[in-house]
Amino acid sequence: MIVHSENIAGILNQVTAVFTRRQVNIESLNVSASSIPGIHRYTITAIADHETIMKIVDQIEKKVDVLQCQYFTDDEIFMQEVALYKVVTSVLTENPEMSKIIRRYGAKLIEVNSTFSVIEKTGPTNDIIALNKELSKLGGLLQYVSSGRVAITRARIEHVNEYLEKMETRYGNN
Predict the structure, then answer these.
(1) φ and ψ of 73, to 5 deg
(2) Strand order in 2-6's β-sheet?
(3) Do domains 2-71 and 78-146 have the same CATH topology?
(4) Which of 4, 6, 164, 172 is the most core-located residue (most Cβ within 10 A)?
(5) Which of 60, 74, 80, 64 is nearest to 3 (CA)?
(6) 3-class SS at 155?
(7) Separation CA 59–CA 53 (nearest Å)
């Protein structure tokens, strides 16, 4: 789902409460400024049946400070995640397989010191998870963190632009 709202304190809590009431777990949540000044964008990933998701969308759209909430399937958006993996440097330098894996996944080393090294991977969720599994098998994985999805629609403009234009036409610049 992609939710657009004004930047109002407490709106994130209101949005996540809708999922809690429906007993749907949020798999990932990313909140950031949108391309429209003063409007924030929430990218929410959740796993539920279509009917449940549509009920959640309807409930979120009823929130006063929410401008729009839309549901998208994976084929309707471009999405990426960023992950960081901290590994023991000696395992990295002594095991050539680890370097091969890093290259195969298109990841890059962003820090190397005598104690640990940090690997960065940007890509789809499946690649992020697969790289984590492969690095874990080799040993020496100290930490792992993933950003959760960030996504943009395949449409030419954000749908919220159409909504805002319609509201401006209906209510003027008041």
Answers:
(1) -85, 165
(2) 26-33, 39-46, 2-6, 66-70
(3) yes
(4) 4
(5) 60
(6) coil
(7) 10
Name the pTM for this structure.
0.72
Instruction: Please say whether the beta carbons of 63 and 106 come within 8 A.
Output: no
Per the CB < 8 A criterion, the answer to whether 40 and 7 are in contact is yes
Alpha-carbon distance of 54 to 44, in angstroms, equals 13
Q: Tell me the domain boundaries of the chain.
A: 2-71, 78-146
Q: Do 63 and 15 meet the contact criterion of CB atoms below 8 Å apart?
A: yes
- Reading the chain (174 residues) residue by residue, the pLDDT tens digits are 989 888 888 888 999 999 999 999 998 898 888 877 888 888 999 999 999 999 999 999 888 788 888 888 888 888 889 999 999 999 999 999 999 999 999 999 999 999 999 999 999 989 999 999 999 999 889 999 998 788 777 766 666 666 666 656 666 655
Length of the chain: 174
- Could you give phi then psi for residue 94, rounded to 5 degrees? -95, -10
Q: Does domain 78-146 have CATH number 1.10.1040.10?
A: no
Q: Which option is the CATH number for 2-71: 3.20.20.70, 3.40.720.10, 3.90.420.10, 3.30.70.260?
A: 3.30.70.260
For residue 36, give the nearest of 147, 166, 162, 171 by alpha carbon: 162
